[in-house]
């Protein structure tokens, strides 16, 4: 979850009204007329994303969720304010590939094209960690792969977009959430690999990672009762109490700005209710520790430090030689 550091003293300049108007106009340019699919869209962050897409003029939105009752209620309430057939609810479990294949087909037939996919559905339940892994990794992989298949090349020139929702990684604050944290780390790997495997220049698809900090949703409110052991609860609550919590509205607002400027492969944090900032995955050699007391580790006795991979792999099976 997010870190508890207090904001620094550096003064932030408030945007003027005309700058804000320009930003809204620019976001409308990206969102207006587009079709959006949001997993876990019935409540929490997913619901806030839906509201912002509507505000910025999205054409049609599909919210896909396992909670049928809330999903249908949202569909009906949007109908009252935005008219019929603006938001469709599809009942599906993201961790069930068959259900998701049917759901994407249905979404395509409802919206014709799918331009933006927000891969958001997730749970926090360390006691049912197999389920947590199935939804947070299995479900997100399933959604991401189907999204790549269905996102059509963008006719407007901005590229279709897949946003994978991870979390703001701060190891010390997630000490009591080992499995949840592992699943959220995995999503950064998934996003980075997909962005590299399907380069935006060739496919027109941007892959972006969103890392929200602690946000006021059912997931957070229930989290103290979802730990691996009751013994952890007191420490967990103490850690949580040191953090500030933001509203889903701020994260959704941040996502709109990210959609405007985020490049494929980029990773964005929205924390403490502030505007988004981009982070990068560091080069491991830049993270290398140096020891103060001159500890030197014994170098292994090998004649060659590395061997060409082609010498090791059976090229008749791997085809490595023919790729060279
Ligand atoms: N709340 C936070 O502090 C926070 C911080 C960082 C990241 N996140 C991530 O944001 C995402 C949304 O979380 P939230 O806080 O809005 O949670 P939430 O519990 O408020 O909403 C999650 C939504 O996903 C749906 N869902 C759950 N399992 C599903 C499944 N198997 N198939 C389809 N839908 C399913 C739920 O019914 C619900 O509508 C999650 O991936 C979460 O890990 C949350």
Automatic annotation (TrEMBL):
Its EC number is 1.1.1.141, 1.1.1.232. Gene3D superfamilies: NAD(P)-binding Rossmann-like Domain. It catalyses: resolvin D1 + NAD(+) = 17-oxoresolvin D1 + NADH + H(+); 15-oxo-(5S,6R)-dihydroxy-(7E,9E,11Z)-eicosatrienoate + NADH + H(+) = (5S,6R,15S)-trihydroxy-(7E,9E,11Z)-eicosatrienoate + NAD(+); resolvin E1 + NAD(+) = 18-oxo-resolvin E1 + NADH + H(+); prostaglandin E1 + NAD(+) = 15-oxoprostaglandin E1 + NADH + H(+). Keywords: Oxidoreductase. InterPro entries: NAD(P)-bd_dom_sf, SDR_fam. SUPFAM superfamilies: NAD(P)-binding Rossmann-fold domains. Belongs to the short-chain dehydrogenases/reductases (SDR) family. Catalyzes the NAD-dependent dehydrogenation (oxidation) of a broad array of hydroxylated polyunsaturated fatty acids (mainly eicosanoids and docosanoids, including prostaglandins, lipoxins and resolvins), yielding their corresponding keto (oxo) metabolites. Decreases the levels of the pro-proliferative prostaglandins such as prostaglandin E2 (whose activity is increased in cancer because of an increase in the expression of cyclooxygenase 2) and generates oxo-fatty acid products that can profoundly influence cell function by abrogating pro-inflammatory cytokine expression. This is 15-hydroxyprostaglandin dehydrogenase [NAD(+)]. The lineage of its organism: Eukaryota, Metazoa, Ecdysozoa, Arthropoda, Hexapoda.
